[in-house]
TrEMBL record:
<keyword id="KW-0029">Amino-acid transport</keyword>
<feature type="transmembrane region" description="Helical">
    <location>
        <begin position="138"/>
        <end position="162"/>
    </location>
</feature>
<feature type="transmembrane region" description="Helical">
    <location>
        <begin position="97"/>
        <end position="118"/>
    </location>
</feature>
<feature type="transmembrane region" description="Helical">
    <location>
        <begin position="6"/>
        <end position="32"/>
    </location>
</feature>
<keyword id="KW-0472">Membrane</keyword>
<feature type="transmembrane region" description="Helical">
    <location>
        <begin position="64"/>
        <end position="85"/>
    </location>
</feature>
<dbReference type="InterPro" id="IPR001851">
    <property type="entry name" value="ABC_transp_permease"/>
</dbReference>
<feature type="transmembrane region" description="Helical">
    <location>
        <begin position="277"/>
        <end position="296"/>
    </location>
</feature>
<keyword id="KW-1003">Cell membrane</keyword>
<feature type="transmembrane region" description="Helical">
    <location>
        <begin position="191"/>
        <end position="214"/>
    </location>
</feature>
<dbReference type="Pfam" id="PF02653">
    <property type="entry name" value="BPD_transp_2"/>
</dbReference>
<protein>
    <submittedName>
        <fullName>Branched-chain amino acid ABC transporter permease</fullName>
    </submittedName>
</protein>
<keyword id="KW-0813">Transport</keyword>
<dbReference type="InterPro" id="IPR052157">
    <property type="entry name" value="BCAA_transport_permease"/>
</dbReference>
<comment type="similarity">
    <text>Belongs to the binding-protein-dependent transport system permease family. LivHM subfamily.</text>
</comment>
<feature type="transmembrane region" description="Helical">
    <location>
        <begin position="226"/>
        <end position="256"/>
    </location>
</feature>
<keyword id="KW-1133">Transmembrane helix</keyword>
Amino acid sequence: MTATLLFIQALNGLQFGLILFLIAAGLTLVFGVMDFINLAHGVQYMVGAYLAAAFTAWTGNFGLALLLALPTALAFGLLLEVLVFRHLYDRDHLDQVLATFGVIVFLNQAVKFVWGAAPLNVPVPEILSGSVEITDGLLYPVYRLAIIAAGLAVALLLYVLVSRTRVGMLVRAGATNPEMVSALGVNIQRLFMVVFGFGAMLAGFAGAMVAPILSVEPGMGDNILILAFVVIVIGGIGSIRGAFLAAILIGLVDTVGRSFAPNILRFFLDPATASQTGRAIAPMLIYIFMAAILFFRPSGLFPAKR
């Protein structure tokens, strides 16, 4: 266990946390404003990755592919909202869960039909390839730093949008008291559509950004959706600030925990047992962390006031 390794894993945790935030931000807005449980939100992440792969192969330029993938992900999210999700807003949560699970199954099979079941690889943009020397002898991939910078920029933009604009005011009011917002003459259906589309675009952006460092494959959004739900539960449903803080904490706990849990257990157990136990406990750390947070703050760190 060295300070250098800890710093590297902290950067990896920050990068992972920011990707989680991009997914969880849209999810917490949809859940907080619309009271709609969307299990298919992870599919938007997968679709964003596939769009980035397809447009990169078509144009040969990742930057241009990203610019094309974002509006396409937005349009796809709005299409799903109009065709499927709009008809579920007045249904109970069980109906929403079952219907959105069906959307997951359908779209996972759809991408297999269009792109095949084999994983796709997206090359890292040449301008962001290579590594940068952070300190003496410590190199870190430039593209991962670009993900961190992009995530922080989007988080800042989202904060300004939610806190300083009229649309953001309506979103915050909708998360707090949707009945009053509707009574004041706001078109709730249009507000719901804007929130849903924006959340879908954020998830698609996250998928597009990770495409060059992960395999693009069917079902890639399923596991990260679980972590996104953990983020919004810890942060507080409907809270962007809570989602940001919780995502960073989850990213650090997961990444650093997986690296150092076996080493820490060696202080108490023999090396073989510590290694085996550490690998078993590491994936559980985020859920232990969630339970600890909810024990002291059952509504999350920054719940939306109602």
